[in-house]
From TrEMBL:
Other remarks on this protein: May also have succinyldiaminopimelate aminotransferase activity, thus carrying out the corresponding step in lysine biosynthesis.
SUPFAM superfamilies the UniProt entry points to: PLP-dependent transferases
Cofactor(s) needed: pyridoxal 5'-phosphate
A GO molecular-function descriptor: N2-acetyl-L-ornithine:2-oxoglutarate 5-aminotransferase activity
Reactions performed catalytically: N(2)-acetyl-L-ornithine + 2-oxoglutarate = N-acetyl-L-glutamate 5-semialdehyde + L-glutamate
Official protein name in the record: Acetylornithine aminotransferase
Top-level taxon of the source organism: Bacteria
Modified residues (N6-(pyridoxal phosphate)lysine): K235
Homology family: Belongs to the class-III pyridoxal-phosphate-dependent aminotransferase family. ArgD subfamily.
EC number: 2.6.1.11
Summary of subunit composition and partner proteins: Homodimer.
Annotated positions binding pyridoxal 5'-phosphate: G94, T95, F121, D206, E207, I208, Q209, T264
Pathway connected to this protein: Amino-acid biosynthesis; L-arginine biosynthesis; N(2)-acetyl-L-ornithine from L-glutamate: step 4/4
Length: 379
């Protein structure tokens, strides 16, 4: 028997080690990692710079509580805001970052309604779950938090109809990750930003999966020339050390005064020291342009499968966040198992999308090796 809740459909392999783009299971079988732990290990496993940062901080203070000044938090926040006027709140996960965003949006605007999108995913705590546009994930947990409405993604008319003067915020992913790797259309996202401004509603962009270089820009929204009022990020921010962050325009900061919101572990020194290294490594033009080049290569090569295999319907995504839509959930299951048998780990998204999230540091040779396996298994 297992001593764990059965809330995850776990595979039997137990990943006990990793190096670069590879992970090793309990039998020392080596797998090419096209998951990065669901978009977390963006700098690969046992990255030397990350290891060094962690080791240095391990020998200093790990945790000092948020009762005291924290220079490391200030440094990470400054790097995250990239010269723009945002204030940052640190927490420990994506769902917590979204909780903070929802609370800030309501308090700062004095409005209650939040509009989100169908097949979105924002997390599992009550606020974030209520924002998630997937009834299946909410089933059994009612009553959820009131005030959320779910609109069709990439459509403007339903949004215009619902964007009334009691809407605090519109919340969205630039590429819906769990929902099936569905990118926002540029014109749509720019129109959403404009409509929000006209209505004095805040635009919250959830960059928890798309952020930290995953799509080829540090935040995915940068490729859309929009400027969100609130940004949430987590997952890859400390390459596996738990951390999350919520950035809000400075004019919103007064709504989060002393006592308004908080967390014990959020922004602890270990996570901050690693996050500082991760941002420094990833937020460089050469690093990000390499992600774009690798992503374009992978996407172009995979797109050929649309003509070559009747199982492949579409290839979508940006940078190294790529979805291969297959013809059925059964094909997806068979493909993921087939890849595992060929020692490549990959993910699912939505009902029938093969989701590929390799470490951003993956080499061209590893990428080609992965492609070869994917081609073989799908064909
Ligand atoms: C877009 C998005 N938002 C929020 C979350 C929740 O993050 P966490 O699992 O760290 O709570 C996820 C996790 O997959 C996500 O992909």
């Amino acid at each position: 028997m297992s001593y764990l809740f059965p809330n995850y459909a776990r595979d039997t392999i137990d990943l006990i080690d990793g190096a670069g783009s590879y992970v090793y299971d309990q039998n020392q079988t080596r797998y090419l990692d096209f998951t990065s732990g669901i978009g977390v290990s963006n700098l690969g496993h046992k990255n030397p710079k990350v290891l060094q940062a962690l080791a240095e901080q391990t020998n200093k203070i790990w945790h000092s509580s948020n009762l005291y000044a924290n220079k490391l938090q200030e440094q990470v926040a400054q790097k995250l805001t990239m010269g723009k006027d945002y204030a940052t709140f640190f927490c420990n996960s994506g769902t917590e970052a979204n909780e903070a965003a929802i609370k800030l949006a309501r308090k700062a605007t004095g409005r209650q309604k939040i509009l989100t999108f169908k097949q979105s995913f924002h997390g599992r705590t009550y606020g974030a779950l209520s924002a998630t546009g997937q009834p299946a994930l909410q089933a059994g947990f009612y009553p959820i938090v009131a005030g959320f409405d779910y609109l069709p993604y990439n459509q403007l008319v339903p949004l215009k109809e619902k964007l009334t003067d009691d809407v605090a915020a519109v919340m969205l992913e630039v590429i819906q990750g769990e929902g099936g790797i569905i990118p926002a259309e540029k014109k749509w996202l720019q129109a959403v930003e404009k409509l929000c401004k006209e209505n004095n509603s805040l635009l919250i962009i959830d960059e928890i999966q798309t952020g930290v270089g995953r799509t080829g820009t540090f935040f995915a929204f940068e490729a859309y020339q929009v400027e969100p009022d609130i940004i949430t990020t987590a997952k890859a921010l400390a390459n596996g050390i738990p951390v999350g962050a919520m950035l809000g325009k400075v004019e919103l900061a007064k709504a989060f005064g002393p006592g308004s919101h908080g967390t014990t572990f959020g922004g602890n020194n270990l996570a901050m020291r690693v996050a500082e290294t991760v941002i420094t490594e990833i937020n460089q033009p050469t690093f990000l342009s390499a992600v774009v080049a690798k992503g374009n290569f992978l996407k172009q090569e995979l797109s050929q499968l649309i003509d070559q295999s009747d199982k492949v319907c579409a290839v979508r995504g940006a940078g190294l966040m790529i979805g291969v839509e297959l013809d059925s959930p059964e094909t997806l299951y068979t493909v993921i198992q087939g890849l595992k048998n060929q020692q490549l780990l990959a993910l699912k998204a939505g009902k029938k999308v093969l989701r590929l999230l390799p470490p951003l540091t993956i080499s061209q040779q590893e990428l080609e090796q992965g492609l070869k396996i994917i081609r073989q298994v799908i064909q």
